[in-house]
């Protein structure tokens, strides 16, 4: 190797790496495609997880009966509750036994027997002035106290009185017995 050749190899100019037209196009189109795909996919993901992100409506009260119609004799009242479970919305029919006590307080009992979940009824020849269950003979008094067969008192709805109406809220364990 002569002197000139040696100089050429030691002082080689730095080669700049240039992007080819093909690379430029593929980067540009790829980026634009990814952006557009993101625009289409993100709303789908948002839709898929939306029910999880929604705040659950807790403690909603439902109008059940006019206050003036509630007496000391338990009355069966039907009402509907709007339920949202993920993407599924429904309005199941609910039932309550509503009574006014001697102090004028209104309370509402669940009709679901605490033995195995049959629907109870009020009074009659078999069980005068008692709630009774047709399935295995459970008995409860007017306040929902379990007297026979059932291991627990009847559950109680939360009650709210407003503008002459009785509103029922979520069920809770009986607070009266
Ligand atoms: S379900 Fe009511 S007594 Fe058994």
UniProtKB/TrEMBL annotation:
Answer yes or no on keyword Secreted: no
Nuclease as UniProt keyword: no
Q: What does the record note on quaternary structure? A: The main subunits of the menaquinol:cytochrome c complex are a Rieske-type iron-sulfur protein (QcrA), a cytochrome b (QcrB) and a cytochrome c (QcrC).
Q: Name one GO molecular function term.
A: 2 iron, 2 sulfur cluster binding
User: Function, please?
Assistant: Component of the menaquinol:cytochrome c reductase complex. The Rieske protein is a high potential 2Fe-2S protein.
Q: Which residues form the Rieske domain?
A: 98-168
Q: What is the lineage of its organism?
A: Bacteria, Bacillati, Bacillota, Bacilli, Bacillales
Which protein family is it in? Belongs to the Rieske iron-sulfur protein family.
Which parts of the chain span the membrane according to its record? 24-45
Matches recorded under SUPFAM superfamilies: ISP domain
Key words, A-Z: 2Fe-2S, Disulfide bond, Electron transport, Iron, Iron-sulfur, Membrane, Metal-binding, Oxidoreductase, Transmembrane, Transmembrane helix, Transport
Species assigned in the record = Cohnella endophytica
Q: Which domain of life is it from?
A: Bacteria
The protein's name: Menaquinol:cytochrome c reductase iron-sulfur subunit
- InterPro entries registered for this protein in UniProt: Rieske_2Fe-2S (IPR017941), Rieske_2Fe-2S_sf (IPR036922), Rieske_Fe-S_prot (IPR014349), TAT_signal (IPR006311)
């Amino acid at each position: 190797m002569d002197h000139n050749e040696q100089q050429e190899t030691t002082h080689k100019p730095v080669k700049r790496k240039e992007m080819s037209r093909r690379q430029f196009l593929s980067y540009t189109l790829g980026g634009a495609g990814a952006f557009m795909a993101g625009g289409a996919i993100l709303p789908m993901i948002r839709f898929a997880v939306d029910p999880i992100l929604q705040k659950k409506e807790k403690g909603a009260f439902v109008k059940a009966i006019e206050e003036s119609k509630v007496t000391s004799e338990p009355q069966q009242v039907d009402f509907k509750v709007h339920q949202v479970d993920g993407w599924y919305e429904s309005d199941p029919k609910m039932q309550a036994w509503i009574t006014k006590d001697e102090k004028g307080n209104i309370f509402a009992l669940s009709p679901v027997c605490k033995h195995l979940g049959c629907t109870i009824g009020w009074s009659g020849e078999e069980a005068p002035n008692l709630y009774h269950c047709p399935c295995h003979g459970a008995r409860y008094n007017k306040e929902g106290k379990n007297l026979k067969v059932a291991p627990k008192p009847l559950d109680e709805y939360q009650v709210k009185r407003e503008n002459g109406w009785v509103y029922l809220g979520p069920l809770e364990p009986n607070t009266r017995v």
